[in-house]
Amino acid sequence: MKLRIKGDSLRLRVTPSEMSRLLQSGRIEETIHFGLESEAKLTYALMMLAAQDGGIALRHLPHEIAVTIPPNLAHAWADGEQVGIYGAVDTGAGQLEIAVEKDFACLDKNDTGNEDTYPNPNQGVVC
Questions:
Q1: Burial class of residue 29 in the structure, from the number of CB atoms within 10 Å of its CB (0-12 exposed, 13-18 middle, 19+ buried)
Q2: pTM over 0.90
Q3: Distance of alpha carbon 43 from alpha carbon 29, whole angstroms
Q4: Torsion sign over Cα 116, 30, 75, 54
Q5: In the chain, how long is the greatest CA-to-CA distance?
Q6: DSSP classification of residue 117
Q7: Which contiguous run of DSSP H or E holds residue 28?
Q8: Per-residue pLDDT of the chain (127 residues; tens, 9 = 90+)
Q9: d(C-alpha 50, C-alpha 60), whole Å
Q10: 3-state secondary structure of 98
């Protein structure tokens, strides 16, 4: 899973194998370590939350951020042509835009760089 943070926006990109794990276990996560101390890390996760109504939401704990989506949205997204799930949450200091998207193959990379990605819908399109 890839994480991109820019200003007040957060984007996760999910590969097909990660999507399968999400649907089976209800949660996928990655951790980035910033130093030798045990607390010098950030875990970012995507999880299905059955009790959640509506759309996308965010949980923040010390050293962890978790984007949450209801199971019905996750299954519809996984099984359909929909690129992603989008929303915003109020942070008290404004809106945090959230995008959770399928990780598509890059058109300018070799096969090694495109392992475990969704087929790019623009593959073969002439500019």
A1: middle
A2: no
A3: 7
A4: negative
A5: 50
A6: -
A7: strand 27-33
A8: 999 999 999 999 999 999 999 999 999 999 999 999 999 999 999 999 987 777 899 999 999 999 999 999 999 999 988 999 999 999 999 999 999 999 877 656 565 666 666 556 665 544 3
A9: 18
A10: strand
